[in-house]
Specification:
By secondary structure, the chain is mainly α. The protein has helices at residues 3-20, 23-43, 46-79, 82-116, 123-152, 170-174, 177-208, 212-248, 250-256, 290-296, 318-347, 355-363, 367-383, 404-435; strands spanning 157-159, 165-167, 263-264, 268-275, 280-287, 302-303, 386-388, 392-393. The chain has one domain (3-247, 318-435). The chain starts with a helix and ends in a 15-residue tail after the last helix.
Length: 450
């Protein structure tokens, strides 16, 4: 691989991975904040409103970091990936522009109203701002997902005389079937992040012995939401996304499973190490026929292996793709088990006093970030060697005028700046968590209505 291409790929991979640490939390918290506000209104319990205000501050910090780290990626399309932008900009410029002009402004404007306008708005109007923030954040996510989905499964385009691609159908772009499944799966992962973070902070308060009323609300809300969306990640969203890959990118599916030789009744590998040189799985732990059934709903269905495709169409790092996919699936399974046990304890009235479970919830905090990162690595590594699947190879899309040395220089600069931003984020988060939710828990009999 050309050294400049490698540097540009690492550069963008680093910036997008670091950036997505923040949107996944904001998109995950947005519906949970609406739930807290709704419960506060219905139960006339000010504790829930205090809880919503607390998480709105966490949302605001993460939103700010997401904006700061997201802007450089837009410029990288023109600096590091100019040939790709020239080739596909006539299509993806639509969704990227709509994300910035509509969804981002909706989210940011109403976030300001939610954070600073509560005393000037009625209770229901303030609830409406929370809903608008939720809609804006999830709409923003959809436009970004639609952009990536088009790169995975290009639709609604025509080739212009200069060789570039131009949009022929706006609705084909935004209603891309790949986007629907990818969006559902991605947003489920975001809610799991929000739920785990919320339950972890609640567990911390209960173990600490402070803000216990709020801690119980955080744990209860996070555990219930976590269980619901962990199950949805497995089925139908994960299943639907997997079958979309099998239909449109069969070579990707083969690489994800390290299935070097196609076969009828293909097994599902639970554990094992891909040996690319010898084209086999070392030390496999398999479920016979399971991959065939999950993919085609038939135990003896034939699943194509990597041997069915030319070598130059294989994903370029099969081992990393395999491990990323299995880390995502493994952590997703752990989330289901963890949240199911916590929900059972909650139903039996023992969760808040079960310190061992509270410690598990607290220590689980980093794992949804790992799972989401592994999921995106699976999607992007699986698309290789294509930038636009079947149309433009990654090796043809980078800026030939930007040398490896220039790319490395800016990458080192980003590493330094983002390290400082990460430290600032952790400092601000720690300060808010230690300060805790505002006010003392109390029940209000008077809530203003519209």
């Amino acid at each position: 691989m050309d050294s400049a291409l490698l540097v540009h790929r690492i550069h963008f991979a680093f910036t997008v991975t670091f950036h997505y640490l923040f949107p996944q939390l904001t998109m995950g918290l947005a519906p949970l904040i609406v739930v807290l506000k709704t419960l506060g209104l219905r139960r006339r319990d000010e504790t829930y409103n205090q809880a919503a205000r607390f998480w709105a501050k966490i949302f605001g910090i993460s939103f700010l970091m997401g904006v700061v780290t997201g802007i450089p990626m837009e410029f990288q399309f023109g600096t590091n990936w100019a040939l790709f932008s020239r080739y596909a900009g006539g299509v993806i410029g639509q969704t990227l522009g709509m994300e910035g002009m509509f969804a981002f402004f909706l989210e940011s404007a109403f976030l300001g109203l939610f954070l600073f306008g509560e005393k000037r708005l009625s209770a229901w109007a303030h609830w409406g701002t929370a809903v608008a923030v939720f809609v804006g954040s999830w709409l923003s996510g959809y436009f970004i997902i639609a952009t990536d989905a088009w790169m995975q499964h290009p639709v609604g385009y025509v080739k212009a005389a200069d060789g570039s691609l131009q949009l022929s159908s706006f609705w084909a772009l935004v209603l891309n079937p790949w986007a629907w499944w990818q969006y559902a799966h991605n947003m489920g992962g975001a809610v799991i992040t929000g739920a785990v973070v919320m339950s972890a902070v609640g567990a911390f308060y209960l173990l600490w012995g402070k803000f216990e009323a709020h801690g119980r609300i955080f744990v209860r809300t996070g555990v219930i939401a976590g269980l619901i969306f962990s199950v949805l990640q497995l089925f139908p969203t994960g299943d639907g996304q997997g079958r979309m890959v099998a239909t449109n990118q069969p070579v990707t599916l083969a690489a994800m499973e390290a299935l070097f030789v196609g076969q009828a009744g293909a097994p599902l590998v639970i554990l094992g190490q891909p040996n690319v040189e010898e084209r086999k799985i070392d030390n496999p732990v398999e479920v016979p026929n399971a991959l065939s059934f999950l993919t085609y709903r038939a135990w003896k269905a034939n699943v194509q292996g990597l041997d069915a495709f030319p070598r130059d169409q294989w994903p370029q790092n099969i081992a990393l793709l395999y491990y990323s996919y299995h880390i995502m699936v493994g952590l997703g399974t752990i989330f289901i088990v963890m949240m199911a046990i916590a929900t059972l304890l909650l139903w039996r009235g023992k969760l808040f006093s079960a310190r061992w479970m509270l410690w598990i919830l607290l220590l689980a905090l980093p794992f949804p970030y790992i799972a989401n990162t592994a999921g995106w690595m699976t999607a992007e590594l699986g698309r290789q060697p294509w930038l636009v699947y079947g149309l433009m190879r990654t090796a043809d899309g980078y800026s030939k005028m930007v040398s490896a040395a220039n790319g490395m220089f800016t990458l080192l600069g980003f590493l330094g700046m983002y390290a400082m931003l990460g430290i600032l984020f952790l400092f601000l988060m720690r300060r808010e968590i230690e300060h805790g939710p505002p006010g003392e828990p109390k029940v209000s009999a008077k809530l203003t209505s519209v």
